[in-house]
């Protein structure tokens, strides 16, 4: 039996611009050496390019791309 208390579940924070958890997860994967602001800049620049080229919602394109690369059950 542990002397410590049980760990509380934390809710994941969403990003400041899109308010989306998926964007936050992608930023955390891009991040190197704790430089989250640089990871946000990289992702937002990519999202801007997606919107300019496809003229659709870039979050839908991002979600679709992640679904395609994840393994299916």
Automatic annotation (TrEMBL):
GO molecular function terms noted in the UniProt entry: RNA binding; structural constituent of ribosome
Stored Pfam families: Ribosomal_S7
Native organism taxonomy: Eukaryota, Viridiplantae, Streptophyta, Embryophyta, Tracheophyta
Family: Belongs to the universal ribosomal protein uS7 family.
Keywords for this protein: Ribonucleoprotein, Ribosomal protein
Matching SUPFAM superfamilies: Ribosomal protein S7
Protein name: Small ribosomal subunit protein uS7c
Stretch forming the signal peptide: none
Gene Ontology cellular component annotations, sorted alphabetically: ribonucleoprotein complex; ribosome
């Amino acid at each position: 039996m542990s002397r410590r208390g049980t760990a509380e579940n934390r809710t994941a924070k969403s990003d400041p611009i899109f308010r989306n958890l998926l964007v936050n997860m992608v930023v955390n994967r891009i991040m190197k050496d704790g430089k989250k602001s640089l990871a946000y800049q990289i992702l937002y620049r990519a999202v801007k390019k997606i919107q300019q080229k496809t003229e659709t919602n870039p979050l839908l394109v991002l979600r679709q791309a992640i679904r395609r690369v994840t393994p299916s059950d």
